[in-house]
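Protein Entry — a single chain follows
Next Lines — sequence and tokenised fold
***
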Amino acid sequence: MEKKYREVFDGVRASERLRKEVLEMKYLERKETRYALRPALAAVLAVLLLAACAAVPGAASALADYFSERWSEQNETALTQEQLDFIGAITQTVGVSDTVDGVTVTLEAVTAGESSLWMLLTMDGLDVPAEELVEEDLRFATAGLYLEPAYDGYNYGVAIERPLELRAAEDGRLMLLFRAVYDDETSGVTFLTEPQALIALQDLRAYGSDGRQKSVVAKGIWRLKFELKPLEKEAEAIVLRDVTLPALYLNLREVIDNIDDEVKQKPCEVLAKELRLTSTEMHIYLMDDGFTLPTGEARLILDDGAEVGSSGYWWDERFSRRTATQDRKDDEVRSHYIASWDLPVDLSRAAVLRVGDQTIPLK
């Protein structure tokens, strides 16, 4: 989204302070939420979690472990075996590696939905023990996931520099979990339509609390080509039409006319022509192509009362750019956003969608 503001402001006369203020706005960034469990309950859930994940083979068990923890953070129950089986059905063991200067990066496993992809990578041969690195803020200098038909040209892809989570494996390797959210309505490219993929990583670095680089943990460029296997059975999506959602609006004309005033975010409502819910994300199709951004965390409420949250909103830049250059037509979708669930969900159990304070029955 910052890139969108930057392009618009390239042709606008504005003070440096105002430019900086607008370009640094992060409407879509979700604040981290931590859930504190009672000690006794946490102990019980830990036992159930270990028992459930032990049944998942190989590297995929680390992904199941991560999803189970996200579930337990949001619900005072353990992830059911049915949900684990559902996640296991869309999780694939990969095992592709690349070694540079003695450091080996391996893509161990992926959990793939239509537009959300969770990736478990490991690094071996690092000079610093993994137990120490998990306490650091680690990021790659550049890192991206690219899809066919043009990944060698890096045309279809998304940045994945910062991992969701770091862990130390029992064998001493560093485990890094990433999530990528990607969809291109213009070309139809998704994780399910284009199985050929590439992960390109460069220089793993450690950063301090002030955001400045402290050290280079591993130097090199690693390229991991892999293939996503097609799902045996793709779950049906839930489609809702003409839904009003909470949003924020930035009137660019007011910003230009009042150059010395602070930029204000205006709460508003926006009409979503369509919401399409899948097991891994929610697609939002808006008829407004201005600076109207959906807000309010999207959450699925299941039939037993359990909840699954989401992580911000991803903007389909390619699609929105194309529609912005065309003549407006009545009743036409102009922009596309994606809210990725914190973990894959069996949609047959979804009873209610909640976006901000708005509640939408699904059954």
Summary: Confidence is low (pLDDT under 50) at residues 1-57, 150-154.
